[in-house]
Amino acid sequence: MINTIYVEQDVLEHFRTKEILSRFSKAEVIVCHHYGELFNRKAQNFRMQKKNSALIIADKKKQFVLSAPDEYGIGGDKNYYFSHMLNCIYDCRYCFLQGMYRSAHYVLFVNYESFADDIVKTVNAFPDQSSFFYSGYDCDSLALEPVTNFVDFILPVFENLPAATLELRTKSTQIRALLDREPINNCVVAFSLSPDNIVAHLEAKTPSLSKRIEAMRKLQARGWKIGLRFDPLIYHADYLLHYSAMFKQVANALDSSLIHSISLGAFRMPEKFFRNMIKLYPKERLFAGSLEENDGMVSYEKQKEQEMTEYCHAELLTHWTDEKIFPCY
Amino acid sequence: MIFITCALHCEAKPIIERYKLAADREAFFPIFKNENLVLVVTGIGKLLTASAMAYVYARYQEPEYSAWLNVGVAGVKNIELGCLLNVNKVTEISTAINWYPVRLPALSTLPSCALITLDEAGNNYTENDAFDMEASAFMAMALRFSPVELVQIVKVVSDNLQNDMQAVNKQQVTALIAIKLPEIEMVVDALAAEAVTFRENYQNDDLYKECIDKWHFSAYQKKQLLRILPQWQALDGNAGFDQLTDFQSAKHVIAFVSIQLRDRDIYFGEIS
Fold first, then answer.
1. Exposed, middle or buried: residue A275 (CB in 10 Å: 0-12, 13-18, 19+)?
2. In this complex, is the C-beta atom of A237 within 8 Å of any C-beta atom belonging to chain B?
3. Complex-level ipTM
């Protein structure tokens, strides 16, 4: 529930702002000069804000499309990401956003056209290369779709860019916008998946594994390409049993031959973000134990990480073919 | 601890009486306190407000998770006298800097407004903004000491387009605040609840204090200890001082707890 909406002065009259405000007629609207006044301020607590996050409606001025981190690819020549939103309605304890941002408020940039222009320009700069665009890097791509209607806007953009592929990364079951239209060939709806015990303990406010599977099943039946994202893998007692049971559950529910891609990677985090996360959650079990820092990244001890990823990779191969699997390690 | 600031004694008087606050007669500002509240009468304006806040903060040694509340009267063009407003935005007119106090869910029934802090008293009212002479300094200082979730401002409307500020006397200000004491109590209670949550989440518990008392930890070791002790307790229900008492030094304590963390399986539920 969103009780407070901050709106940048410059987009107060924007048609998307008006649409959103009309959906939240009981929310208190506060005009701000620039979203950074709220979002980037020191002296705020991400964890406390998460209990009562506000929505900030803003205008993004620059850097609409950015190069994706090296390990983010699933086969494209060029990999990019863009963030029409910052932050997420879910509260996953391993999420890097809580270590990266000072605020847990949701920022929505309503100038979607600027993102589209930059995407087209980026694709046209390398016409002979395949490019992937990830939309769920700094937010969940679908979780706030009923409010943002971003998918409705961006899919026709990609429909006209056959050399480019859009990945919508999500844990959400808000798939109505996708079910209500014809699928497009160059869009992958990629679901982040974890075993039920991890969902229950570390992915607060998210749909259960079975609900995510049901959403994937409906999308697949409608003809959408589905991606499976087993990232981050969480090392814990009995993880072998938990992960192999989940892989089996997913494989049994979906048509494996129609899966677009599968990625997997163990929990890892830039050291700076990790330090912030420990400060926010000093008693969190996830952050205790076999983690070590190497070259600015915190991850499981090498041996444990290798054991877990190799085991999970081997388990995946019992259900899917190797050319679909993209390890992020 | 909740620190309350008022610019004038006539604003503070009903709060002092309600909470039975006793004067701290050795202080350099008019300060009134009980076990949970410290109220300081800052005087009018930003400089005095900032000075008084720094003074009470230093004097009462409340380093973390104290809450700050500014209570006062303010002018608002079109809002009736006596209305209590929970401020949601503060703009300092001389710098155009904005601050945004959080709208706490517990206070959502209170009407809210933006507020402009002036350098000099004035009655050039704009639409529905409130005006005062202290709030920007209050925000700037409070956020030095506490997170924004522990900072609130409430103003009672003392003057508007029909009722000139010059006509407001001290007795009227006191009466305006007194009649809004139930709402002010609500704000105090909401801040106290937030502060409790902060302390539950973050305050060092007895185990840390016992360790610091028994062994000498360097500054770096204290940081390590602050990180690993809560994790040890989260993983091991039996974690406690009795497991550490035989160790000779801080180094041994840290080594032992670190091994406990490394060697312990982390459980996230059973397989169904």
1. middle
2. yes
3. 0.92
Quick: pLDDT tens for A231-248: 999 999 899 999 999 999
CB contact under 8 A, A289 and B264: yes
According to the model, what pLDDT value does residue B204 have? 77
Q: Which of residues 24-53 of B touch A (CB under 8 A)?
A: none
Nearest chain A residue (CA) to B236: A285
pTM of the model: 0.94
Task: List the single residue in A with minimal CA-CA distance to B269.
Answer: A197
Nearest chain A alpha carbon to B97:
A37
Residues A245-266, mean pLDDT to the nearest whole number? 95
| Interface membership of B144 toward A (CB under 8 Å) | yes
- Contact of A98 with A272, CB cutoff 8 Å: no
CB contact under 8 A, A43 and B100: no
Strand blocks (E) in chain B:
2-6, 22-23, 31-33, 37-41, 67-76, 84-92, 98-99, 112-117, 130-132, 151-159
Question: Which B positions 66-105 lie with beta carbon below 8 A of chain A?
Answer: 88-89, 96, 98, 100, 102-105
Which of B197, B234, B262 faces A48 most closely, judged by CB atoms? B197
Report the distance separating Cα A279 and Cα A256, nearest Å: 42
With beta carbons less than 8 A apart as the criterion, state whether A264 and A231 touch: yes
Whether B220 contacts chain A with CB within 8 A: no
Question: Do the bridges between strand B112-117 and strand B130-132 make them parallel or antiparallel, or are there none, so unpaired?
Answer: parallel
Task: Name the packing angle between helices A209-222 and A239-253 (round to 10°).
Answer: 30
Residue A284 near chain B (CB below 8 Å): yes
User: For the stretch A299-316, what's the b/e string if a residue is b when 16 or more beta carbons lie within 10 angstroms of its beta carbon?
Assistant: bbeeebbebbbeebbebb
Confidence of residue B265 (pLDDT cuts 50, 70, 90): confident
Q: Tally Cβ neighbours within 10 Å of residue B80.
A: 10
**B43: region left, alpha or beta (phi > 0 left; psi from -120 to 50 alpha):** left
Q: A173 and A207 in contact (C-beta within 8 Å)?
A: yes
The β-bridge relationship of strands A325-327 and A259-266 is: parallel
B271 touches chain A (CB under 8 A): yes
Task: Name which of A22, A167, A148 is nearest A88 in CA terms.
Answer: A148
Torsion B108-B10-B194-A273 (CA) sign: positive
Q: In this complex, do B232 and A3 lie within 8 Å of one another by their Cβ atoms?
A: no
Q: Residue type for A324, please?
A: K
- pLDDT, tens digit (0-9, with 9 covering 90-100), for A53-102: 999 999 999 999 999 877 667 777 899 999 999 999 999 999 999 999 99
A42 contacts B100? CB cut-off 8 A:
no
| Number of neighbouring beta carbons within 10 Å of residue B203 | 11
Interface test with B, best of A9, A198, A280, A283 (most B CBs within 10 A): A283
Does residue B266 sit in helix, strand or coil?
coil
Contact A30 B89 (CB under 8 A): yes
- Are the beta carbons of B234 and A43 separated by less than 8 Å? no
